[in-house]
Amino acid sequence: MKKILCGAMFCAMALSLAAALPMQAAAAKYTVYCTNGKTEVDMRTPAQMKSARGGSTYPLATFDYRTDADNFAKKMNRQCPKK
User: Fold this and answer.
1) What percent of the chain has a predicted confidence (pLDDT) above 70?
2) Domain of 48, in residue numbers
3) pLDDT more than 90, % of the chain
4) What is the pTM of this model?
5) Under the phi-then-psi rule, with left for phi > 0, alpha for psi from -120 to 50, and beta for the rest, what region is 58?
6) Burial zone of 82 (CB within 10 Å; 0-12 exposed, 13-18 middle, 19+ buried)
7) What average pLDDT does the structure give for the chain?
8) Is the pLDDT of residue 6 over 50?
C-alpha cells in the first residue's frame, strides 16, 4: 500500500512540475528599455519599469534570450535619446 501511495504522490508531483515549466519558459522575456538617455535590459513590464525609473522610460525591443537583448542594447546605446 505504501508503494502505491508513494508512486501516486511522485506522479502527481512530476505532473505539476511538468505543467509549470512551459509557463515559466514562456514568461521569461528580456526587454530593452530606453530610460534617462541610456539603454537597459530588464525582465520587468513597461509599467513596472516606468514606476521604477520614471515616466521617460519606454521599451525598444523584446527578446527571448538575454544575450540577444544585451547585443541589441549595445548597438542602441548611443542612439537612445532623452525624452
Assistant:
1) 63
2) 25-83
3) 46
4) 0.63
5) beta
6) exposed
7) 78
8) no
The total of structural domains in the chain comes to: 1
CA distances to 5, 9, 15 from 1, rounded to whole Å, are 6, 12, 21
18 domain residue, yes or no: no
Say how many CA atoms lie within 13 Å of 79 toward its Cβ.
7
Q: Tens digits of per-residue pLDDT, 54-77?
A: 888 999 999 999 999 999 999 887
Task: Classify each residue of 31-56 as buried b or exposed e, where b means 16 or more C-beta atoms within 10 Å of its C-beta.
Answer: bbbbbeeebbbbeeeeeebbeebeee
User: Is 11 contained in some domain?
Assistant: no
Tell me, yes or no, whether 19 lies in a domain.
no
Report which secondary-structure segment, H or E, holds 51.
helix 46-53
**Contact between 77 and 40 (Cβ < 8 Å):** no
Is residue 61 in some structural domain? yes
